[in-house]
Amino acid sequence: MTLSAGGRIGLAGAAVVGVAFGMARYAYGVTLPDIRADLGLSELVLGLIASATFVGYLAGLLLAGPLAARRGSRAPTTVGGVSGAVGAVIVALAPSPWLLALGAVLAGGAGGWVWAPYSDIVTRTVALRQQPRALAIITTGTSGGLVVLGGLAILAIVGSWRLVWVAIAVAAVLAALVNLRLVPRTAPAPAAERPAGGPSLAAALRVPAAYSVVYFATVIIYFTYAADVLDRGSLPEWAVPALYIAIGLTGVVGVATGTAAQRVGSTRVAALCLVVVAGALVLLGLASESLTATAISACIFGVGYMTGSAVLAVWTAELVPERAGAAFTACLVVGAVSSVAAPALAGAVIPGLGLGMVLLITATVSLGSGVVLMLPALHDTARS
């Protein structure tokens, strides 16, 4: 059976994004308890390193555009694969917090290099009617990565947390090779096709950008501290791998985001995702001693997380189809800044407020933002 252009690009993109986001980006949170014990790091240092990973992510986002303009949109995806592999190797071998931070920054930066360029690749090479589905499939590749990451987390239980990072390095190399094989090389867009960003772009993205601030902050708080919450409780060791596997499996529903956005509007889908993520945070913060509550938290978070990221790709492509990559990048940059600030702030206030209270405050922000975003969507869905 021969795959269509959308199928080939969707498969390759899902593999690359799955490794960069589902594995390299969130492996730090999975291995955080063991890293703390092995290297003897404080909450503040752990939070700063988590924030630093998103500095790498932000750098990747900002540099991917210029590289794509010179070498074509596939080039940043290749750089991202290399960044993820090299960073994972450094983390696996790191004897000190400084090398750990360097490797984590490179690994975390992989996502910045690879995600947004696929918007341009899809809009330039895939038929219009297939684009929402292709974008959703690529984004939902993160679910597969999370399932694999959950399985790899067992290595941290029976062996060492460093083995998790070795496996991620291998996966990053394999995904990069698949990407080179299935994704066509795209020539840089002529200057005439790359209009300068102006007020119109900023105006079109006001609501998605505001959504990005809240969405990425809440998601990174969940991922950074979920394993830590379970580790502090009385749950069995396998609860952490199971949590990530559950997130990945339920997140597969994200492949339907394109269809859902076409039917009810991207704004409404985004608002519902923030509400769902809020519910997951509440359960994690209040009932982390309960295996059932933790499982429910992971399952509903998987739905909110994957649908929430997929809808952003679809949403920005709908609003600015002629500059889908630039529009998506702009929202991701805003979200990256939020992601840098959130873990550092959490690490600073956890000693005083407690981790559970920080999760509840984060949930409140997510819920309130979802309600605010929902109100205009109910009256003017067509504008989404």
TrEMBL record:
UniProt entry keywords in alphabetical sequence: Cell membrane, Membrane, Transmembrane, Transmembrane helix
Pfam families recorded: MFS_1
Cellular compartment(s): Cell membrane
One GO cellular component term: plasma membrane
InterPro entries, per database record: MFS (IPR011701), MFS_dom (IPR020846), MFS_Efflux_Transporters (IPR050189), MFS_trans_sf (IPR036259)
Main location: membrane
GO molecular function: transmembrane transporter activity
Major facilitator superfamily (MFS) profile domain boundaries: 10-381
TM segment ranges: 45-63, 75-94, 100-122, 134-157, 163-182, 203-226, 238-257, 269-287, 293-315, 327-350, 356-378
Annotated membrane topology: Multi-pass membrane protein
PANTHER family per UniProt: CHLORAMPHENICOL EFFLUX PUMP RV0191, PURINE EFFLUX PUMP PBUE
Protein name: Major facilitator superfamily (MFS) profile domain-containing protein
